[in-house]
Amino acid sequence: MADEAKKKEILEKLKNSVIQYDEDTCKEAANEAVEAGMDGNEAIFDGLVAGMEEVGRLFEAQEYFVPEILMCADALYAGLDILKPHCRQMDLGVKGAVVIGTVEGDVHDIGKNLVKMMFDVSGFTIYDLGRDVPLDKFVEEQLKTDSELVCLSAMMTTSMVGMPKVIEKIKAKNPDCMIMIGGAPTSKELADKWGADGYAEDASNALKEAIKMVSFLKKLRDEKASKQK
């Protein structure tokens, strides 16, 4: 097992290699994490994801733009490829199915993929629709899979405007389904205004929100079931 100082050094290296979009250093740090016997989840979330969250802040501050974001993502995926086989599935006491995608008109899927990864190692069943997803596709997929949760992502204000339409359509067909929105132009205020059940500021927050929502939904279902007995 890696000692604390070594572990801290590797996590810092993973984080900085993502921020500095340095694929080779990221691979090197990921291999060091494996060789040191580090926990794969910790290396991913406290190293790679921490780096990507800092990249998100740089993007919002307009210090980084889309080309840098894409290079940072390449570095992250290079590290992820090495670390993912060493991940253990976390048992967070709640399981659920989630439909996830980036809304129509938007091809940015880095944030969406980070959230998907967190759901993946947390034991959720994931139906990933990818990017530039037609609005009705979210509705169809939710009905087909009976997923507890739908996650809508957008990185641009122009594509974000499709979100309320999806929320309205899903809620009309299945009022029990929980919907979470996320992405740079979104906010908690917009989530409330559009009738979404949650808002994800970043990937870690998305997972926490999802667990809360799915737990709440399961509790409601159990209450309904016990009343029907």
What does this structure look like?
With 229 residues, this protein is α/β, with parallel strands linked by helices. It has 2 domains: 4-86, Orthogonal Bundle (Methyltransferase, Methionine Synthase (B12-binding Domains), Chain A, domain 1), CATH 1.10.1240.10; 97-228, Rossmann fold, CATH 3.40.50. The protein has helices spanning 4-19, 23-35, 40-60, 66-83, 110-121, 135-145, 157-160, 163-173, 188-194, 203-228, and strands at 97-102, 125-128, 149-153, 178-182, 198-200. The chain has a 5-stranded parallel β-sheet with strand order 2-1-3-4-5, sandwiched between helices. The radius of gyration is 18 Å and the shape is globular.
Strand order of the largest sheet: 2-1-3-4-5
Superfamily (CATH H level) name of the largest domain? Cobalamin-binding domain
Q: What's the gyration radius in Å?
A: 18 Å
Secondary structure category: alpha/beta
Number of helices: 10
> How many β-strand runs?
5
Helix content: 55-70%
Q: If classified by CATH, what would the architecture of the largest domain be?
A: 3-Layer(aba) Sandwich
Total domain count:
2
